[in-house]
Amino acid sequence: MARCRTIRHIPSRAPASSENHQEPKSVAQESDDQANMVAILARAGATAAASGSLQRPTDRRRRNAAVVVAAATGTGPAVPQEGALERPAWSGETPLSRLVGALIAFKPLYSLMKLASREVIIRTAEKSNIPWRDMTKKVLESDVYEVFERIRDPNLVYPDYYLSPFHAYDEGNLSWLAAAEAEPATMSIAKRAIPEARSIEEANQIVRGNWLNAIEEHHLKYSGNCQINDILDIGCSVGVSTRYLAEKFPSAQAVGLDLSPYFLAVAAQKEEKLSRQNPIRWVHANGEATGLPSDSFDLVSLAYVCHECPARAITGLVKEAFRVLRPGGTIALTDNSYFRNYPQCCSL
């Protein structure tokens, strides 16, 4: 999630069906990652074509970003088509990836690397006036543990990839430290995305503002006058993206869904302290099989989720998003690029 310049809007035109589905095209050609995401969407039954533009930040603060837009049609599944995925040099079976794997496999060295990298991240955030340690302490010393017991589904079975160490946390997202540090980490990412922003608030306004404007512009233009009454935020983490969506569309009922009950407990505890016309509902579930009714949401969001998942999970997430989406609804995906220093934003 780092650097943003221009955001391009790529809506879909033709319905996705087994008869007329075509490989999606990218006009911007600014990032191989954009094409990769479109390829994944094609596998789940989306189509894309090019057009339009999106309101940009002021000239002084422009950054590069890409928005891919596709529309759900409700006309039946498309024939899956898979594009060639270009991977970072350190992934897959390359000499560099094997070296990285060997370093990580050596536990004493990995522990030192993890501690050093965490300290650098925290110090960098605090230099940007993000009170990382204070925010973390506030969460860990709160009554969030009581909320956890109310929100957790003890019968939920976690996918194998979710049980691995992740983001330098041994328990991945299934830990209190990961949940307590999620919001300051999110703030830090926004500041790195817009380094010349004068404050964290300004950086968030640019990054999140472009994302919300892309969603609104696409929905108004291509939804057939369907109102946004119900919103689902899949992989909502501690609810940062969910709250932005709820504030952008205050008359809608928003649902935040995540695999981590720790993250959801932090999100729910914060929401309980806010006064909102339609309080956000939090659901502990797998985004690939939400258990929610089909055709029940006008907007489905996956914000900074896909980069954390294996390809099979991304396909499952997008298929499930299409299943719960109403005809004329919008799916919005935003994610970061391994190859560029800016976010990849996708609004469907």
TrEMBL record:
A Pfam family annotated for this chain is: Methyltransf_25
Report the coiled-coil segments. Answer: none
Methyltransferase domain span: 231-329
Compositionally biased residues, Basic residues: 1-11
Q: Residue ranges of region Disordered?
A: 1-32
- UniProt protein name: Methyltransferase domain-containing protein
